[in-house]
Write a structure and sequence with these properties.
18 strands; alpha/beta; 395 residues; 30% helix
């Protein structure tokens, strides 16, 4: 069963027809795809909330470029007790900006319009141009009475060119975002702190943990939502160790500390969600953006009240599901444009009717369909791939 809304189903049918003519008539295909996204982006931001006596808190921790293979090599995260681990978790577009936009909007990239990391069709400038930040999980929860915080690496291009560090997107009460024009690296990086630029000394992920702990300690009666977008294990990798996996794994220590320490200090009314914005491949050369499991499959673990510990390896879940899941737990009805679905029944250990296929895409480059056993890829140059897959595989 596919859970997409009727508008999404219609657009998916149109896209399937267009695949066959995309090479011959690329302009027409792009125009129809853009029209579908424009329709969903133009829908009103009509999130509503219902009275709820004890709204839960939420901490969403997003690693950067953490593939499942590297995750499984880490010393602590895969074995932290009490969480529900989703083995069949994917990002619908395997690169940072579209993925984070999908997390915050509950939409595919072809719907929210941020197709990549750089202009003209991606990055911070594209998100601001389209106005998608005016209606996100942050704005829905803020309107419902939540105290909202963003810490870490926002969209590529934030704090640079047409989007200065003084800009704080709608929906965020507390803002500590890395400025993109800073030099690549982890230490002594410029951040926008509530719209004021300053350099944060030391490792950025260590600083993120300190800020997160401060906000948790300062939390009063008002419920909170916190999104922490870590830098690790994104390039540049340290010059220690010999293998690329071990060099990348070395960067994850502060993030492992972050998850472990936050699980220790939050109260029993708090959900902690850990995932990555996309996967990563090391050969033939390091990168992402591909439709294969190495790039699209990500770790996903959820801890919190009512969550049944264990492993879910039966359900295809995705980053478009995060926003409707948090909204559901917070007593908020998201806008009609949301294409993901709530994971709450799965967190409770139930087995509801669920999707048997998931759309993956890098708009203007490829579109794929992922099932439990097969990956089908249609490339923009006309190539067509059909690959067998299995749980935990990396085709």
């Amino acid at each position: 069963m596919d859970d997409k809304a009727s508008t999404t189903q219609h657009r998916g049918t149109v896209q399937s027809v267009l695949r066959g003519i995309a090479v011959a008539i690329p302009v027409l295909a792009a125009a129809v795809l853009l029209l579908g996204g424009d329709v969903l982006r133009s829908m009103p931001c009509s999130a509503t909330s219902s009275p709820q006596a004890h709204r839960p808190n939420f901490i969403l921790i997003v690693a950067d470029d953490l593939d499942v293979a590297l995750y499984n090599q880490l010393s602590r995260l895969p074995s932290l007790p009490g969480g529900r681990h989703f083995e069949e978790a994917f990002v619908t577009t395997p690169t940072c900006c579209p993925s984070k936009a999908s997390m915050l909007r509950g939409q595919y990239a072809h719907s929210h319009g941020v197709y990549g990391n750089n202009p003209p069709n991606g990055g911070m400038a594209r998100a601001k141009q389209l106005g998608i930040e005016s209606c996100t999980l942050a704005t829905w929860l803020q309107a419902a009475g939540y105290d909202t915080s963003f810490i870490g690496r926002y969209f590529v291009g934030y704090g640079w060119r047409d989007v200065p560090p003084s800009y704080v997107p709608p929906g965020w009460d507390h803002w500590m975002a890395r400025v993109s024009r800073s030099a690549a690296g982890y230490d002594d990086i410029a951040f926008s702190v509530d719209g004021h630029e300053r350099t944060i000394a030391g490792n950025t992920d260590v600083a993120a943990l300190a800020e997160a702990r401060r906000l948790v300690a300062a939390a009063g009666e008002r419920p909170y939502f916190m999104m922490i977008a870590a830098m690790a294990p994104h390039w540049p990798w340290p010059a220690v160790h010999h293998s690329q996996p071990s060099r990348r794994a070395a960067l994850m220590a502060p993030v492992e500390d972050m998850v472990a320490q936050l699980l220790e200090v939050v109260d029993d009314n708090t959900y902690v969600i850990f995932t990555s914005d996309n996967g990563f491949h090391l050969s033939p050369r390091p990168g992402k953006d591909l439709p294969y499991d190495s790039d699209t499959r990500v770790p996903l673990v959820v801890w919190g009240p009512g969550v049944v510990p264990g492993v879910d390896d039966q359900h295809l879940v995705a980053n478009i599901d995060f926003a409707p899941t948090v909204a559901d737990l917070a007593g908020v009805t998201p806008p009609a444009f949301v294409e993901g679905r709530s994971l709450v029944p799965l967190l409770r250990g139930q087995a509801p009717p669920w999707r048997d296929a998931l759309t993956l895409e890098l708009v203007n480059h490829w579109t794929a369909t992922r099932t439990a056993t097969q990956l089908t890829v249609d490339w923009a140059d006309g190539r067509h791939e059909v690959l067998p897959v299995s749980a935990g595989s990396t085709p």
